[in-house]
Amino acid sequence: MRRDGSRRLVRLEAYVGRTAETPFVRAVKRAFADALLAEIRRHRFARDEAAASGNVSRSYLQYLLKAERHATIGTLISLAEGLGIAPEYLMAKTMEHLGRIRPLIGSEGTPPER
To answer: CA of 107: how far to CAs of 14, 26, 50, 52, 55, in Å?
Structure first.
């Protein structure tokens, strides 16, 4: 807070998108989005229904389906249970999609070494 009692405004736009996204991270997000969308279609859910049953907002689901957000383990579990499938099944489908995507991005499609 400033001396005159006013608060300094922080521009959050400057911080959004600053994380370095490797090709591997983009591939994981795309694979999850593809697997999730396939399951939503297979169960004939509307996106609104899928979001509500998975306890996420419609906008967050849209970001996930566009591969613009990371899904946490909790989100994966919640969405899978909302669709009536086992979370490990959704994860297995994600891994299948990742297996298809990885050859397309070459050596950059490997996880970073620790």
So the answer is: 31, 14, 35, 38, 36
Angle at 24 between CA 114 and CA 111, to 5 degrees: 25
Tally helices (H) and strands (E) across the chain: 5, 0
The tens digit of pLDDT for each residue in 2-15 reads: 666 666 554 544 44
Transcribe 4-62 into DSSP letters. TSPPPP--GGGTTT-S---HHHHHHHHHHHHHHHHHHHHTT--HHHHHHHTT--HHHHH
Query: What is the amino acid identity at position 82?
Result: G
Give residue 63's Cα distance to chain centre. Answer: 7
pLDDT at residue 48 is higher than 80: yes
Q: Contact, 36 vs 60, CB < 8 A?
A: no
Inter-residue contact 78 to 71 (CB < 8 Å): no
State the Rg of the chain over Cα: 18
